[in-house]
Amino acid sequence: MKVKEKLAKDHYNLPTGKNGRDDEELILWFLKDRRFEVDEAILKLTKAIKWRKEFGVSDITEQSVRRAAATGKSYVHDSLDVNGRPVLIVVPSKHIPEMYDRLEDERLCVFLLEKALSKLPDGKEEILGIFDLRGFGLKNSDLSFLTFLFDVLYYYYPRRLGQVLFVDAPFVFQPVWQLAKPLVKSYASLVNIFYSVSIFLHTIWSLKSI
């Protein structure tokens, strides 16, 4: 594979093995993300591999994120959705930005993304994100963390998030979302907003990608 050989020659110092420079599945994923533009794929892939090493993705364990996870602010649902996608649930009302060290929240985010992706059935490539916005208030807004989340998804887990559902969004959420939309880049187009749980439950079955 041309990309694999180029990585070995020009980026020999990068780690190998799963999620490394010789991981053919990972290489193919970034090629598809960059529409098989080799140089663009290599640029984005090497950035992702370096980030995984620097962030210590392989060292994050359930025990290491136990304290942040105990809040219930985010978790991977036990069941897949009706299209066989793993479901990542986020409950922003349980997120108080100053309660924990920022790094704890970031590590929990990455741990749950890895967990959700590990549950992908054969033939499936994307996960579903559901934001349960019941009880959300301004004290829970955290544009900085939201930017981190979508940067991680865009640069390091591209095209892994298939759809985002905002459920029971209160009035106060609307101006927060207007501020956030430019920060989350193209992922804003994946978002469906439901202003009540009943509308969400009624509509979810008719959504083509659900």
Automatic annotation (TrEMBL):
Residues 62-210 form the CRAL-TRIO domain. Keywords: Membrane, Transmembrane, Transmembrane helix. The keyword Membrane applies. InterPro entries: CRAL-TRIO_dom, CRAL-TRIO_dom_sf, CRAL/TRIO_N_dom_sf. The chain crosses the membrane at residues 187-207. Coiled coil: none annotated. This is Sec14p-like phosphatidylinositol transfer family protein.
